[in-house]
From TrEMBL:
Coiled-coil zones: 74-115
Localization terms from the record: Golgi apparatus membrane
GO MF term list: glycosyltransferase activity
Residue span, Nucleotide-diphospho-sugar transferase domain: 188-406
A Gene Ontology biological process term: cell wall organization
The protein's name: Glycosyltransferase
Residues in the signal sequence: none
GO cellular component terms, semicolon-separated: Golgi membrane
Highest taxon listed in the record's lineage: Eukaryota
The keyword Cytoplasm appears for this protein: no
Species annotation: Nelumbo nucifera
Transmembrane segments: 21-40
C-alpha cells in the first residue's frame, strides 16, 4: 500500500516518515536510559550503554557515559545527578506554588479588605427563601477633622444626620429663589445651599436660607471661581465627599426643582444611592429586557439585553458608606481626566457597569425612586397633566430636567400644584420647540 503511494510527490512524505521514526526511536532510547538509570544505579549503565545513546545529543544522563570514567565514579555521579534533578523538580514546584500564592494575594488583597470592611464576620446561609444579600452598607465612622467648620454647620442644619444640598452660583439665582421658596413652603428645615460665589452667599443670607461658602484657601474652591463647566460638575462630587466623610446622608438637589412634599418622608434609605430616574414608565424607569433582533442569525436572531433609563445625577440620595464615597471619587476622577464627559453619563457608567477584564466595577447598591413621586418634567408634561387621575396626585418633587425653559415651567408648576390653578400647565408644549 505504501509503495503504491510512493510517487514523486510522496517521496518527501516517505522521508519525513522515516525521519520521524528515527526521532521516535531516539525518544524511546532516552526513556529507556532514564528507566535503567533508576532501576540499575549500580552497574548496568557502565557495562553496556544503549547503542542509540551514543548518537544522541548530550543530555544530563549521558554525562557519565564517557569511557574514561571508572564505573564507581560514574555510578556516584549518576546518583548525584538523580538527586540533584529531583531537588530541582521540588524547587521548581515550590517556586510555582509561591508565585501562584503571590498572584492570588495581589488579586484578592484589595477585594478582601473591602469585603472585610463591609461584612465584618462570616455567616452561615439560612434556609431556602430566607437569605438576603447586603444592600444597606454600614455608614463610615465620621471624621470631623476633614472640615470642622462644615461639621459645625451640619450639626445645626441636618435632621437625623441628613439634609438637602444644592450648589449654586449667580447664574441660577432666579431658579434658586423658586427652589428655596418651595422648600420653605413645605416646611423642610434641613437644607443647605453651597454658594459658589459671594452674590449667592449674600442672597441666601438675606433670605434666611442656610448657606455654606467654602474657605477660599481650599484648593478645590479655585475651580468654582475660575473653572469651566466640566471642572464645576466635578466639583459637585468633591464637595459631596466631605458631607459623607462627616457621616451625613445627602439628598443632592439641582435648583431646577420644585418641592411639593418633604422628600425625607418618602425615602427607603436601604441603598448606597437612591435616585430619581430619567425614565417615564415602569419599564424605562425600573428596567426591562430589551430584545435585540438580528434576523441574519436565524435560530438565534433574538439577543436579550438589559436596559434602564439613566439615573438623574441632579437629584439623588446618597448614604455615607464606602461604596458611595468610592462612587464620588471615581466620578470626580473621571471628570477631571475626560474634559468632554457628561457628568450624568459618567455617574451612571460608574454605578452600573460590572467588573470585566481590566476593570473593577463599583458594586454600590442602588434604588430607583418612584417616578410619579420624584417626577421628571417629561412625565409631567407628556403624561400626568393629561391624565385625569394622575393629575390629581401630588408628587414629592418635580424636576424640570427635560425642558430648557426651566424658569417659566417651574413657576407654572407652583401655580398648578400650590395655587391650584388648573390651567397653569396647559400652554406648554410636551417637549421643547
Ligand atoms: C407599574 O408598576 C406598579 C407597581 O410597581 C403597578 O402597580 C402598575 O400597575 C404598573 N403600571 C403599568 C402600566 O404596568
Amino acid at each position: 500500500m505504501l509503495g503504491r503511494r510512493d510517487g514523486p510527490l510522496m517521496r518527501n512524505n516517505g522521508q519525513s516518515l522515516r525521519g520521524s521514526r528515527i526521532v521516535f526511536a531516539i525518544a524511546v532510547g532516552i526513556l529507556l536510559g532514564c528507566a535503567f538509570a533508576f532501576l540499575f544505579p549500580h552497574g548496568f549503565f557502565g557495562s553496556d550503554p544503549p547503542a542509540q545513546g551514543r548518537r544522541l545529543p548530550r543530555t544530563s544522563l549521558q554525562v557519565g557515559s564517557s569511557p574514561c570514567e571508572s564505573p564507581e565514579r560514574i555510578n556516584m555521579l549518576k546518583s548525584e545527578l538523580v538527586s540533584v534533578s529531583e531537588k530541582n523538580v521540588e524547587l521548581k514546584k515550590q517556586v510555582r506554588e509561591l508565585t501562584e500564592k503571590l498572584r492570588l494575594a495581589e488579586q484578592g488583597k484589595d477585594q478582601a479588605q473591602k469585603q472585610f470592611l463591609v461584612l465584618g464576620e462570616q455567616h452561615k446561609a439560612g434556609p431556602f427563601g430566607t437569605v438576603k444579600g447586603l444592600r444597606t452598607n454600614p455608614t463610615v465612622v465620621p471624621g470631623n477633622s476633614v472640615n470642622p467648620r462644615l461639621a459645625k454647620m451640619l450639626e445645626k442644619v441636618a435632621v437625623r444626620k441628613e439634609l438637602i444640598v444644592a450648589l449654586a452660583n449667580s447664574n441660577v439665582k432666579g431658579m434658586l429663589e423658586l427652589w428655596f421658596t418651595s422648600i420653605k413652603k413645605v416646611g423642610i428645615p434641613n437644607y443647605l445651599v453651597v454658594a459658589l460665589d459671594d452674590e449667592i452667599e449674600n442672597f441666601c443670607n438675606s433670605n434666611v436660607v442656610p448657606v455654606y461658602k467654602r474657605d477660599p484657601d481650599e484648593g478645590i474652591d479655585s475651580i468654582a471661581r475660575t473653572g469651566g463647566n466640566h471642572a464645576v460638575s466635578g466639583l459637585k462630587f468633591r464637595i459631596l465627599r466631605e458631607f459623607l466623610q462627616l457621616g451625613y446622608s445627602v439628598l443632592l438637589s439641582d435648583v431646577d426643582i420644585i418641592y411639593l412634599q418633604n422628600p425625607f418622608d418618602h425615602l427607603y434609605r436601604d441603598s448606597d444611592v437612591e435616585s430619581m430616574t430619567d425614565g417615564h414608565n415602569n419599564m424605562t424607569a425600573y428596567g426591562y429586557n430589551d430584545v435585540f433582533d438580528e434576523p441574519a442569525m436565524g435560530w438565534a436572531r433574538y439577543a436579550h439585553t438589559m436596559r434602564i433609563w439613566v439615573y438623574n445625577s441632579g437629584f439623588f440620595y446618597i448614604r455615607p458608606t464606602i461604596p458611595s464615597i468610592e462612587l464620588l471619587d471615581r466620578v470626580a476622577d473621571r471628570l477631571s481626566r475626560q474634559p468632554n464627559a457628561w457628568d450624568q453619563a459618567v455617574f451612571n457608567e460608574e454605578l452600573f457597569f460590572p467588573s470585566h477584564p481590566g476593570y473593577d466595577g463599583l458594586h454600590a447598591s442602588r434604588r430607583t425612586m418612584d417616578f410619579y413621586l420624584f417626577m421628571n418634567s417629561k412625565v409631567l408634561f407628556k403624561t400626568v397633566r393629561k391624565d385625569a387621575k394622575l393629575s390629581k396626585l401630588k408628587p414629592v418633587i418635580i424636576h424640570v430636567n427635560y425642558h430648557p425653559d426651566k424658569f417659566p415651567r417651574m413657576k407654572a408648576i407652583v401655580d398648578y400644584y400650590v395655587n391650584g390653578n388648573q390651567d397653569a400647565l396647559k400652554s406648554f408644549p410636551d417637549g421643547s420647540e
